[in-house]
Amino acid sequence: MDFPLHFRCPISMELMKDPVTISTGVTYERKNIEKWFYTCKKKTCPTTMQVLHSFDMTPNHTLKRLILAWQNGKSQSQSHDELSMKHDELVSLINTIESSPFKVSSLKKLKSIVELGDHDVKDDFKKCGGVEVLVRIIQQILIESSDFVTFRACEEALSLLIKLPIVLEEEETIKILLQPGCMKSMAIILQRGSEEARFCTVSILQRIMKSDCQWSVVIEDQGIEFFKSLMEIMSDEICSKASSCALQVLIDILEKSKKSRLKAIEAGAMCTLIEILPDSSKSKSEKIMYLIKMMCECADGRMGFIEHGLGVAAITKKMLNISNIGTKIGVKILSLICNSHPTDKVLDDLLMYGSVKKLVALLHIGGSSTTKERVIKILKLHGDKWKKNPCFPYELKNYLGLESDSL
Known about the structure:
- It comes from Solanum verrucosum.
- This is U-box domain-containing protein.
- It holds the Pfam family ARM_PUB.
- Strands 2-1-3 form a three-stranded antiparallel beta sheet.
- The protein is an all-alpha fold.
- It is built from 23 helices and three strands.
- The protein has helices at 30-39, 61-96, 103-116, 119-127, 130-139, 148-161, 165-168, 171-177, 180-192, 195-209, 216-220, 224-234, 240-256, 258-266, 269-276, 282-296, 299-308, 311-318, 324-338, 344-352, 355-362, 369-386, 394-400, and strands spanning 19-21, 27-29, 58-59.
- Among the domains are: 5-59, 2-Layer Sandwich (Herpes Virus-1); 79-208, Alpha Horseshoe (Leucine-rich Repeat Variant), CATH 1.25.10.10.
């Protein structure tokens, strides 16, 4: 490094860190002059060769402050130069990446710059049209879906997008991502992409759904495979983050659109959810039961629940075992099933798997009046069948007015 001559130690010719001045008025680096005096046993000034009678050393605070000030100025200047170089490299990559035969490596370089950069770098990326470039690369998969390089470039573009959280929160960016071509491309990655690419894609979808943009209409246009892919990711026991993300995305979608509920049901969502519910954590169980509840609000969903065979058992297992919210949702699901002309098998399952027992227990413990009203309605609707079973409490028959043979 080039630095002023008076900052150098006359002995080593290196930049001084701890400058001290001796009796001749010459300043040296402390460790160097100490070595001259005490190790080499010299009694002269190294610069003037003047014989010394005193070996006292006085710290040169003024020079030290000047050296530190110069270093800080140099550091800031270098930092500015580096940022300028990074900016130029960023702009160059964005402008040439689409025509480059090495898109994947260029995207990795871009991602490295964005990851190491500050807010200004991410802002530059957006101002230079980086988001639009990435979307065009992502959409290229629709034209060359069988080309490995195109597919990898699409995956890299999605992994770069997720590194821009501030940009992803902007409505302008969301609208670009909601273009039909971009959504179809992301649907392909959900089906066929690597584990990392699928996680990036479902994370981007989650950010889209947090926005105020009208995204539900675009989602409704997606095919059955889109919902199958979401459920596959949701069932993934290895990548819990991706699974949680997919679960929340599915909730957001079904809350917004009844049409999407029907597509999810057709894609086999009811079967998948019932099968993963028993071994799910408490928080995940609540969300899964909420999804089941939303689908049971449709006739096709109730049919799917009944046809599975273990729906009653799965819901009953979670009632009174996870949370008040979970129990409330569970009662709502059973209410929807029981109010829609359930088969004899369903009614038998409710008794056999302990659903009736838990419903009766709910009448004796605290809970919302709405939940208790649903319980009473279920028991009154089907108590005539259940009262013949010795397990059905006799005192409850009187309470519900089931003494006679008819309701």
